[in-house]
Amino acid sequence: MDGHIYILTDGNNTKIGITTDLDKRIAGYTTHNPNFKIYKTIEADSKEAKRIETVIKQVFKDELVAGKEWFAVHPEVIDRYVSVLLQKPAAMDMLPSMHGIPLTAEARFLKERILSELGEKDPSADADIKRLRELKASLYSHYVDDEPIVPKPETVNILEEIEKTSARLGQIDKARRSKKDRLAELFADKFKLGFPRHKLPDDVIERSGLVLDWGYCDRNSEIVRKAVESNYVRLPYEDHATGFFHLVRLGSGNYVAVETASVSMPYKRAVEGKTDEIFEVAERLGLFMSEHSEWSWHSPSEEHEDSGTTLFLFQPRTPVQTILRQWDSSFRKWVIERSKRLKQEKFVNPKTLNKAVDDIVNDATFPLTVDSLQGVVDEYLAPYWWLDMDRLDEDVQLQAYALLFEKWRGGEGK
Asked: Directed axis angle between helix 152-190 and helix 123-141, to 10°?
C-alpha cells in the first residue's frame, strides 16, 4: 500500500483526504488548524484512494461547508461509505440477511419519528392540500380547448399561488423523505448492501438492474424467460420498491451502478399468507429472499402490528464480490466503455450493429461470464432469442455480435 485515506473532524464538520505521506500531511494540518481531530486513517493503494475520495466528494457535495474541504456530515457516515468502496469481501454464508440485524438506536429513533409524523394531523398541511385542489379546479375551469376565457393576470395569479402552495407541501414531504432516506442508509450499512439509490454519484452512466442470477436461476422456467424478454421482473405483490448498488469503474473514470440488492415494502395485509409464493418466484430467479419488517421505512408500524408495510430483501445467490469481479472482466463492460466507437465500425448494416451495441449496454440479463460468440449463443441468444450459430452466414444480427466479439478477442478486450 503506497497511500492513506484520512478522515478528520473539526466540530460538527468532517473532511476526507488522501496522501502518500501521512505524517507530513497531518503535520501541515496541525500548523494551520490546531482544532482538528483525526477520526480514522486507512491504508490504501494511492489510485484506489483517489477513486474513493472522488466518489465521496460527489455523494456528499450538497453537504459542503467552508469552501470545498469540509462536509456537514458525521465522520461515521463517511467512514461507512469508504468501507463500502473498499469492497472488502464477504463470504456468502455470512450475509447479514441470513440471520437478520436488529434495529440500531438511530434506526429506532428515526422509525419512531416517522411513525409519529404519519400519525399526526397537520392542520396547515391539510388546509394547503384542500386549497391546492380548489386552485387546480379553478384553473381547469379557466380553459376551454386550451384557450383562456378569463383575463391573463388572474390566470397568472392562480398559477403563482399553486406554485407557492406546492412548495410548502414539498418542504413537509422533503423532511419526511430525509428521515426515510437515512433509514435506508442505515439498512444498507448494517446489511452490507452498498449504496442506496439516492446516494449514487452523479457520474454513473448506466444502472444495471437486479433481475436474476444466472448461476442459480431455473433457466427453463417461464418467469426467467419473461424476465429476459422484458429486461425486468416484477416480483409478486411488489410495492414501494427500491434498489441498492455497488459501483464498477470504467476505463473513462465513470461508473456503472450494479444493483446487487432490491427491497420491496408491500403492506402487511396485502401479503398475508403469500410469503411462500414470493419465495418460490425469487428462488426460480436465483435470488435469496428474507423478510425484515422491523426495518420497513415506507409506512412503518409498531412491532407485532399487522398494519403498515413489511420489507422483503432480495439478493443474488452469487456473492457480490464474485459479481463485481465478473463485471470487471466482462464483455458487456467492454462494450459499455466503447459503445460510441463500436457503433462507428464498418459493418454491412450499421443500424443492426447499433442495435446490437445498445442491446448489450442496456440488457441487465446479459450474461457476464460469456467469453466467446459460441458461448453467448449457446447460453443466451439461442435459448431466449432464437439466434442459432447455424445461421451465422445469413443472420445480420448474429454477424454484428460476431464482429463485436472479434474486436474484443482480438486485442481490444480479452
From this structure: 130
Residues forming a β-bridge with 148: 143
Residue with cell 442508509: 185
Q: How far is CA 217 from CA 63, 212, 221, 318, in A?
A: 42, 7, 9, 11
Determine how β-strand 242-249 pairs with β-strand 195-196.
antiparallel
Q: Are 19 and 25 spatial neighbours (Cβ–Cβ below 8 Å)?
A: yes
DSSP 241: -
Whole-number Cα distances in Å, 286 to 164, 191, 196, 223:
48, 19, 22, 11
**β-pairing verdict for 242-249 and 255-264:** antiparallel
C-alpha cell at 294: 422491523
**What gap in Å lies between CA 254 and CA 51, rounded to an integer?**
10
* Calpha distance 263→295 (Å, rounded): 11
Closest CA to 238 of 302, 203, 285, 205: 285
Bridge partners, residue 40, by sequence? 7
Tens of each residue's pLDDT in the chain, 414 residues: 789 999 999 888 999 999 999 999 888 888 778 888 999 999 988 888 888 888 888 788 878 886 678 999 888 888 878 877 776 544 444 577 767 788 888 888 888 888 777 655 555 656 766 776 777 777 666 555 555 555 566 677 777 777 776 776 566 566 778 889 999 999 998 899 999 999 988 778 888 899 999 999 999 999 999 999 999 999 999 999 999 999 998 988 889 999 999 999 999 999 999 999 999 999 999 999 999 999 999 988 876 677 789 999 999 999 998 999 999 999 999 999 999 999 999 999 999 999 999 999 999 999 999 999 999 999 999 999 999 899 899 999 999 999 999 999 886 555
Say how many Å lie between the first and final Cα of the chain, rounded. 28
| Secondary structure class of 15 (helix, strand, coil) | strand
CA separation (Å) from 23 to 18, 28, 120? 12, 9, 53
Residue 219: other Cβ atoms inside 10 A? 15
Could you give the CA distance from residue 262 to residue 312 in angstroms, rounded to a whole number? Answer: 8
